[in-house]
Design brief:
The protein is built from 3 helices and no strands. The protein is an all-alpha fold. The longest helix has 38 residues.
C-alpha cells in the first residue's frame, strides 16, 4: 500500500476537524436540552437540582470554549488544503482526491458563515 499523499493527509485532517466540530455541536445541543429540562422541573426530590443546574451550565460554557480554537484549526487546515490544491498544476494529484478536497473546502467555508 503506497504512503498517503500530502493532499490525502491534509484532506483527512480537515475531515477529522469537521467531524469533531459536529460532535461538539451535538454535545452542546444535548447539554442545553438537559439544562432546559432541569430548569423546567418543579420538584427537587433529592435537593440537588441547583447543583445539577450549575454543573450543566459549567459544562455548556466549557463546550462553547472549544469552538473558537477549533474554528482556527479548521481555518488553518483549509488554508493548507487550498495551498495544496493551488499547486495541482505543478504536482500530479489524483482527481478523486482533488474532488474530495474541493468538496471539503466548500463544506468548511459554509460552516464558517
Amino acid at each position: 500500500m503506497p504512503a498517503p499523499t500530502p493532499l490525502a493527509i491534509v484532506t483527512s485532517s480537515v475531515q477529522r476537524l469537521l467531524k469533531e466540530e459536529a460532535t461538539y455541536r451535538t454535545e452542546l445541543e444535548s447539554q442545553e436540552r438537559r439544562l432546559r429540562n432541569l430548569q423546567a422541573e418543579t420538584e427537587d426530590e433529592d435537593g440537588n437540582r441547583g447543583f445539577l443546574i450549575g454543573q450543566e451550565e459549567r459544562a455548556i460554557q466549557e463546550t462553547k470554549a472549544v469552538f473558537e480554537p477549533l474554528r482556527e484549526k479548521v481555518k488553518d487546515a483549509v488554508k493548507s488544503l487550498e495551498q495544496l490544491l493551488s499547486s495541482k498544476d505543478t504536482v500530479p494529484m489524483d482527481e478523486g482526491e482533488v474532488e474530495t478536497a474541493k468538496g471539503l473546502v466548500g463544506k468548511a467555508k459554509a460552516l464558517e458563515r
